[in-house]
Specification:
This protein has about 800 residues and is an alpha+beta fold. About 15% of the residues lie in helices and about 40% in strands. The strands form twelve sheets. The chain has an eight-stranded mixed β-sheet with strand order 6-5-9-3-2-12-15-14, with no helix packed on it. Strands 30, 33, 34, 35, 37, 38 and 41 form a seven-stranded antiparallel β-sheet that branches. The protein has a five-stranded antiparallel β-sheet with strand order 31-32-36-40-39, with no helix packed on it. Helix 4 packs across helix 5 and helix 7 packs across helix 8. The protein is elongated. The two termini are about 55 Å apart.
């Protein structure tokens, strides 16, 4: 499924509170005693304005144990009227979501019975996402969305029929839905029949012959018209049936222009389509889509006649391999459904458009994960297992796709696609865990993937690779030291395949491969030239904690380096230049600096690398943003860990290489605007090759403190606007000097005490902000923070 327009931080809190208060244990969550074979759902859905349904479901089940005297099913909110076994009226207890039915005679292993359960009522809606919806727009709709994001379990078959509601219990279905005569009922499977009734209603019979879990069963009722054709598939002709309002049919066709290519792509790179038909049904749901088998609930907003939302189409359709064909065993492994579906969007773009389009989308997704996954999910998590409250979070969807991209690079295209095809065939119509995927891919590719899964799937965070130094003094060999400073973990990543691309002054490129299993390791290569530049993984095959952009510079203009979060303005250019900007989503490992009182960003820094012509001059611009609220698609949550209360405290640090100490960059301008809103930008003049990092002057780092209990010094008023008074209760004969210093270290005023007990410093002429009073007494220094703001 896919969803939109959601504040994920608020959602996490809602889900956590709801799950924390779930006290009922549902026997049907995991019910090893029985196996449901078939559901025959017969419902009257004519009362759309009243938002009610009524009817019965026949549940055919197989006993897996001996002496079963009670059957437990799940049914949420709806009221049970009666339960029959044949002609026998059975007693039952329906509390919360648990429907417990008492049998008149025990059943044993291998016995099959069919329970007929009559019920009615107003179906439930999850407080966040999912459930059974009614709408009075466009003549009226009724439809289900098969999961509940906040509920436990997430499966939401139980909101409209009694069932064993988990990911592993799978059954076949018949749907018999009665509607008013102006509407159609669209369900999964094939339409077997429909007939008009004497009361001016129509009954629709759909049959789904494949065994599926409950959350993938579906119904949608509306004033539908069908757009249908036959697609010539890899193994068979496939019926494609799309349903929308008659007035939306043309827009539907245009928005689904690339559905035929999408079918061919997934049949070629996964396996041939395994279900009876392909179906999408348009519903007025404003928060996403749901991958019901052969009947995807697709939002009306995405049917606009353009291709803008076509990746949503690809995402939902891909679930017919990732989720519908092979289903995750538990919600803790939801990345097997959703991460692979997001990756399928990227594969769709690659094959319909270009590899360049694929790379752009992969890097855009990677940037989003590095910037926001831990923010939107309120923590850092492995892909497996994930907590219940982030089953449908950014880690599962977007980091899941990030890791699949990396897996493809680990294996190479041939083994990657061969492995997943074998896996999908072996696990078809079954449920799988991350360990099942690991074992299957290892078996079918003959590549041991234990290290990969341990490092990328079962461990939180990312590796972070960088070049510490290059030594190419001997033209016959080049030594390069590679370091790994992981983000959000301290794991020793093993056997990571890396490519190192070396560039000569004439842009000759030589790429060497290595396997990285160390915190730091020096490798030696024989090159055909003396390198001017070396970049790790320039093609971005491995999703470590960096975003990289390479650009060929041909004219004097401004270049946007996109996900590297830098703009470069070319001011002088004799010939073409090659510039690579890396945005490191991690703190620099070496923070040696001679600048006093500096707090480094623990979140990010940049590396600018280039092969430049003789005449070259450029400036750059970077944005800073210390805000911790707002959209999760903008520039916020970039510098929030620096705690930028006053932007005057910011400093731009520079080093030529990771072996060098950091210094303040010699030529830059901070454009703060309003100095307390935590956003602005920095102009970097005379741009140099090397590393750049944001820092801030922090009087708690390296300056020292005044101890209020032990000192005889008072500074008042603080804050102040006109005059600052420094009072000593006693004084010695040694001369004391006072300095008023801004957070960039610049001395603004200096006063000699000369045995006075009180000294006043006028500050009305100093810009409002945060400053430091430095008191020197016989080479002993203490500091105090003061605020000029009144």
């Amino acid at each position: 499924m896919s969803f939109k327009n959601i504040n994920k931080i608020a959602v996490t809190l809602v889900i956590f509170v709801l799950c924390a208060n779930l006290n009922t244990v549902f026997a049907a969550k995991q019910n090893p005693k029985i196996d449901v074979i078939h559901y025959n759902i017969s419902l009257n859905i004519t009362d759309i304005s009243g938002q009610t349904i009524n009817g019965f479901t026949e549940v055919q089940l197989l006993a897996n144990e001996n002496d079963i005297d009670k059957i437990s099913l799940s049914l949420k909110k709806l009221e049970v009227d009666s339960v029959f076994l044949g002609e026998l009226n059975l007693t039952f207890l329906h509390t919360d979501e648990n429907l417990e039915i008492t049998l008149l005679q025990n059943i044993n292993i291998g016995d099959t019975i069919t329970l007929k359960i009559y019920y009615h009522g107003q179906p439930a809606i999850d407080p966040y996402w999912g459930g059974f919806y009614f709408s009075n727009s466009d003549g009226g709709y009724a439809y289900n969305m098969g999961v509940g994001f906040a509920d436990d379990p997430h499966n939401y078959g139980r909101v409209w029929f009694p069932c064993v509601d988990n990911f592993t219990d799978k059954a076949k279905y018949d749907f018999n839905i009665t509607t008013t005569e102006d509407k159609k009922a669209v369900c999964g499977g094939i339409l077997i029949d429909y007939h008009n009734n004497a009361d001016k209603t129509i009954s629709w019979h759909w049959k789904l012959k494949r065994e599926i879990p409950t959350y993938l069963a579906s119904v949608a009722v509306g004033n539908y018209a069908f757009v249908q054709n036959i697609h010539k598939g890899k193994e068979k002709d496939i019926l494609v049936l799309l349903a929308s309002l008659p007035s939306d049919s043309t827009k539907l066709k245009n928005s689904f222009e690339h559905l035929p290519e999408c079918i061919d792509i997934f049949e070629q790179y996964y396996i041939p389509y395994q279900f009876s038909r392909i179906g999408f049904v348009v519903v007025p749901f404003n928060s996403g889509a749901m991958e019901h088998i052969a009947n995807i609930a697709y939002p009306k907003y995405a049917v606009d006649g353009t291709l803008e939302k076509e990746t949503l189409m690809a995402h939902e359709f891909s679930h017919h391999w990732w989720g519908n064909l092979v289903t995750c065993k538990t919600a803790e492994d939801m990345w097997l459904n959703e991460g692979w579906a997001v990756y399928s969007e990227h594969l769709f773009l690659e094959k319909v458009y270009s590899k360049e389009k694929y790379n752009q989308e992969v890097q855009k997704n990677h940037n989003h994960v590095l910037q926001y996954a831990h923010i939107s999910d309120d923590g850092v998590f492995p892909l497996s297992p994930v907590p219940h409250d982030i089953t449908y979070g950014t880690h599962v969807y977007d980091k899941g796709a990030d890791v699949v991209h990396t897996l493809r690079s680990y294996l190479g295209d041939s083994l990657f696609f061969l492995g997943i095809q074998k896996y999908l065939k072996a696990m078809a119509f079954k449920s799988a865990s991350s360990y099942d995927l690991m074992d299957s891919l290892s078996k079918y590719t003959d590549v041991d993937l234990k290290d990969f899964f341990d490092d990328w799937v079962f461990t939180k965070g990312f590796p972070h690779f960088y070049i510490e130094k290059i030594n190419s003094s001997d033209l016959s060999k080049t030594e390069i030291t590679i370091c790994n400073n992981p983000r959000f973990n301290d794991k020793q990543y093993l056997n990571v395949p890396l490519e190192i691309s070396f560039y000569s002054k004439n842009w000759e490129k030589q790429t060497e491969k290595l396997s990285m299993s160390w915190k730091k390791k020096t490798f030696t290569f024989e090159l055909n030239f003396q390198p001017q530049m070396a970049i790790i993984d320039i093609e971005r095959k491995i999703s470590d904690a960096r975003t990289i952009v390479k650009q060929v510079i041909t004219e004097k203009t401004k270049y946007d380096f996109g996900v590297a979060l830098m703009e470069i303005n070319i001011e002088e250019l004799q010939d073409s230049a090659l510039i690579v900007v890396e945005h490191h989503w991690n703190e620099p490992e070496n923070k040696n600096t001679s600048v006093k009182g500096i707090r480094f960003s623990d979140y990010r820094y940049w590396t600018v690398n280039a092969v430049l012509p003789n005449t070259f001059q450029a400036s750059a611009n970077i944005r800073y943003n210390g805000r911790t609220s707002g959209s999760l698609n903008g520039n916020n949550y970039l510098d929030h860990t620096l705690n930028i209360d006053n932007e005057d405290s910011l400093i731009l640090l520079y080093r030529k290489s990771p072996e060098d100490d950091w210094i303040e960059y010699s030529d830059y301008q901070i454009n703060t605007g309003y100095k307390f809103n935590k956003i602005g930008d920095i102009d970097i003049n005379n741009l140099k090759v090397g590393d750049y990092c944001l820092g801030k002057y922090d009087y708690t780092v390296g300056f020292g403190f005044i101890n209020k209990e032990d000192t005889n010094i008072k500074i008042y008023p603080n804050p102040t606007g006109e005059q600052l008074n420094i009072e000593f209760s006693q004084i010695n004969k040694n001369q004391i000097s006072l300095k008023l210093i801004n957070l960039s270290g610049k001395i603004l005023k200096e006063v000699k005490l000369d045995n006075k007990l009180i000294v006043s410093i006028p500050v009305h002429d100093i810009e409002r902000g945060t400053y430091i009073i430095e008191i020197n007494n016989n080479n002993k220094k203490i500091c105090k923070k003061v605020v000029l703001g009144i």
